[in-house]
């Protein structure tokens, strides 16, 4: 049973992360799908991804490469060109808040910086997953800033928590291991795996490795299992066919969060 301080902390962090989700989620409508391949020139290769732009007037929204989010746009919530209001999809604050509360209630005795690191992942994973589900892209502008922020927070937690340096080393092993694994999958069969999935894999490997060294393996297994179950479900209800491209990123995130919240099931299975 959670204690009263734990419940209060869960409520506080849920509200904080939901609030951050209301602001940060404003970037979600700025991302648009890849344009279709040029039928006149099928060998031209994939077109470049469209820049973040207003969903109403399509004016590009300035986003510094070194900033995790376009701060001025996020605070204003309006397109700088046409002043149209750009709102976060409701799923972003709701899921970010629920995940943050779940991290506190299932986390046992995480240190404050570790909690901050996992709450950051809750918000960032929701942003990435919702964008990928909507436009089948994991934009570099969102994927790459996740790494330095997570490394600073988990690095700080490792330095200030006794015994946590081992967790950080395991996390770095997870980061490298999952990046290599997804890169190999993509290299062997590029149609089955997006390049964005490869770029995001290391971030999840970092967190899963921090949990236990076996968690990146179990989390990846759960991602494939979840994608198979939901893919078959969509085919069964007629929402997809065997040829439909279903983005894999949300399943990688679901697999990772099942591991983080419920623990690694593999010792139960393999003894
Ligand atoms: Zn606009």
Automatic annotation (TrEMBL):
GO terms for molecular function: aspartic-type endopeptidase activity; methyltransferase activity. Gene3D superfamilies: 1.20.120.1220. InterPro entries: Prepilin_IV_endopep_pep (IPR000045), Prepilin_peptidase/N-MTase (IPR050882). Signal peptide: none annotated. One of its GO terms (cellular component) is plasma membrane. Keywords: Membrane, Methyltransferase, Transferase, Transmembrane, Transmembrane helix. GO terms for biological process: methylation; signal peptide processing. It comes from the Bacteria. Residues 119-233 form the Prepilin type IV endopeptidase peptidase domain. The chain crosses the membrane at residues 90-108, 115-135, 141-160, 172-193, 213-237, 244-263. Pfam families: Peptidase_A24. Belongs to the peptidase A24 family. This is Leader peptidase (Prepilin peptidase)/N-methyltransferase.
